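Researcher: Next entry in the queue.
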Amino acid sequence: MEEVDKILIHALKQVGTEVSEETDSVKQFTSELIVEAVVRCLRVMEPGLGGALPTSLPPGMSARFRVGMSLAQACQDVGYKGEIGYQTFLYSNEPEIRSLLMFLVEKLPRERAETSDQPTGTWVVLQRSVAAAIRAQLAVPWLPPGCRLQTDTLGLGPVHSFQAQRLSSAHRTTAAAHKPQKEEEEYHRGVLRPATAQLPDRWSTMASLLEQHTAQLSAAQEWDLEWNSQGLLSRLTPQEYRSRKLTRLRKRIEEQLRSAALPSADSSSSDLSDLLQSFRSSAPDDLLMKGTHFTHTQKFTFTQEVVAAARPAPSGLQSEGDAALRQQDELDGLQQQLQQLCSHVEQLAADMKLMTVTNAQVKDELKQRELGNTEEEERIQVKKKTMNLLPDAEDNLLQLQALMEASSRRLVNLAAQWEKHRAPLIQEHRRLKEIHSSQDLESSRRLSEIKSVHDKMRVCAEESRKKEETYKQLVSELDSLPQDASRSAYTQRILEIVSNIKKQKEEITKILTDTKDLQKEINSLTGKLDRTFAVTDELVFKDAKKDESVRKSYKYLAALHENCNQLIQTIEDTGTILREIRDLEEQMETETSNKTLANLERILEDYKAIRQENSALAAKVREG
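Model: Structure for this entry, 624 residues:
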């Protein structure tokens, strides 16, 4: 571990960590030095992540815990998978700290050859931080001055309410072929101002343009939807469809105006007739876009206002209350007529649905009857031909028999000719069938070979991808290693480590060989002992039946064998206990190296400090 610690300390010095010359092992790192080393590594790896972390621990215990949690979270964000928390930094553990520092050093970016020979220190760290800040500013996308936030001295930008306003433009939203007139072109060229000059302030320019574009786009989409759903079915050109729709809309408005003017019998009828006549004669040049229920209602209301304005004004003897009552009566009458018209339209719609269903049923019945009529006509034609043949039945029968005999002879001749052609055709069919089956077998075999080749290619591609990833990882690890150290020194260290591993392996192999030999010897002695006891037991047991002294010897032999087995078992248990004792001693050494008692004492001291801080804060709160 000494070589690993030296490499780690050298890498930490390169990133700007102030490590003293006396420190030559991770075991000697203090909490402040660990925090500084981790923060320096994070700042080199992720400038945005490590820039917000302090390089030293604050004096307060609660602040220390927060810094420890922030460092643990930052290490997890950069990909550290080990167990980490605030205790890793405040109550350091040598294996955990070594593992964390090794991970951070491996993740450090590769240093250039020209910078590896420069001295480490505060100046190098400052240069690197300046370079990182410049790179971060260059990574921010450029924005035009109009889109940047104009902040004042307090750090708050001006707040504007974006409100869309109506704009006038020379762009037409309709799809009709309309050629602008000369006056219109002169107006667009000389009088119409730009969109930016039509608004009172520049903050509403973007909202107004977006609103106008959205309105034009929605109108175009509505026209496309209506034309695709209804216009194409009418089989008319777009201009004809719009003109017909405009005519239909004018007729509907005329009917509404006429129905609204029917209840009034005063002198306003002539004015209303003039209005209708002028409405008929006036044909607008622009084509009508798709209207909505709101636009229709608005136009109808506007027409009612025109009719009301066309009527003669009441005499000076009538009061304003009578005029209001009269308008209310007219409004009630119009609403009743509107309700009647709505109910009549609903009734007509229901009748239309019923007539449509009836028409479909009648069409189906008509088709069925036409089919039946066709069949009946065929039957009648057959019966009619039969009836025509009845007057001369004998001659017709003779002719029919002659035709049947000629047909049979012709069928026999055709069958003979077919047999002549059938035999070679059958042979050719069988030959082609065999060729096709052989081709199917060959194609299936080749298909299986192609599948196997594809599988091998997929496996090879997967292996090559894994090897490529391994290669990239090894290259990145190689690049992350410090470049200023000499290759011969690392080679010498590697050779020493390899030689030590070989020596340890030889010693382990020797111990294993001795253990195996000893186990073989123990097994052979145990088997020999069991065989000897079996033979002795058999011989002594035979003589024990005849002699009393031999019977006592047999008892002693059995007791001796049992005591020996107990002794062997006791020795094995003793060995097991000794191994457990050694394991426990190793665990005790590990726990001792982890400084558990020292960490517990530090935790108790920190706990007392936190309680004192809490009590001080509570006293401040009570005083406030």
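Model: The radius of gyration is 54 Å.
Researcher: Noted, moving on.
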